[in-house]
Amino acid sequence: MATHEPVLYAVCDGEKARFLRYDGGQLRTVSKFDVHSKGTNAEAEVGSVKEPKSDPHVQLKQHFAHDVAGQINEAFQKDTVLAGLVLTAPGHVLHEIRTHLTKAVAAKVIVAEDKDLTNTPDHDILGHFDRPATGWRLPTA
């Protein structure tokens, strides 16, 4: 897969996340995980000791958003070619993810939209963005 655009697309909801890259023709999923995936801490962190009146499902989604942010931070740390981030998630999840991005990664956010595209197939996802034909204008350092 030849990647022509140094942008990571993160498509998330409170339980699933997909990371995609543009290959010159369409977006393609490069990795995905969910709240039950090995490697996320969301389920382990929602224990039996809960704050009064806390909802374990809400806690799980908050921890998952933290895990998603960690995965995004790690992707940018490992792949120095990445220069931009397009992030979509429902509003409350979007806020949680953005809260846990490093400053360096947060500065690379091109677009953050309140959308749930997790069940949208790869070949249809690009149409949900107002991406210019010439590509995104990447943030400058």
TrEMBL record:
Entry-linked Pfam families: Host_attach (PF10116)
InterPro entries noted in UniProt: eFR1_2_sf, Host_attachment_protein
Organism superkingdom: Bacteria
The name this protein goes by in its record: Host attachment protein
UniProt organism field: Brytella acorum
Gene3D superfamilies named in the record: eRF1 domain 2 (3.30.420.60)
